[in-house]
Amino acid sequence: MKNIIVLLLGLIGVIYLFNPGAGFFELIPDNLPFIGNLDDAAALALLVMCLQHFGINLPDLFGRKKYKKD
């Protein structure tokens, strides 16, 4: 059940980022300075957290290496 909820939240984030309504559905209008893109950042953070829940880490996907300190 938890995986279904996380999947639905991820789909909501993707739909919000693709913005099929061409800007008609915005929680915070983008023309407000500094705070206009906070809703888009929150949708992106939601999507990244959902991907991490399913084991898809974006730094690993793009080949970023983790170095250990000696």
Question: How does this structure look, described?
Answer:
The protein has 70 residues and is mainly α. The protein has a domain at 1-8 and 33-61. It has three helices and no strands. The protein has helices at residues 2-18, 38-53, 58-61. The mean pLDDT is 80. The chain crosses the membrane at residues 41-62. Keywords: Membrane, Transmembrane, Transmembrane helix.
Q: Helix and strand layout, with pairings?
A:
Elements lengths: L1 H17 L19 H16 L4 H4 L9
Could you give a short description of this structure?
With 70 residues, the chain is mainly alpha-helical. It is built from three helices and no strands.
Mean pLDDT: 80
Query: What is the global morphology?
Result: extended
Q: How far from one another are the termini?
A: 42 Å
Instruction: Determine the number of helices (DSSP H or I, runs of at least 4 residues).
Output: 3
Portion of residues in beta strands equals under 5%
Helicity level: 40-55%
Broad structural category: mainly alpha
Q: Rg to the nearest angstrom?
A: 15 Å
Total strand count, please? Answer: 0
Outline the low-pLDDT stretches. none
Order of helices and strands: HHH
Main beta sheet strand tally, sense and closure: none
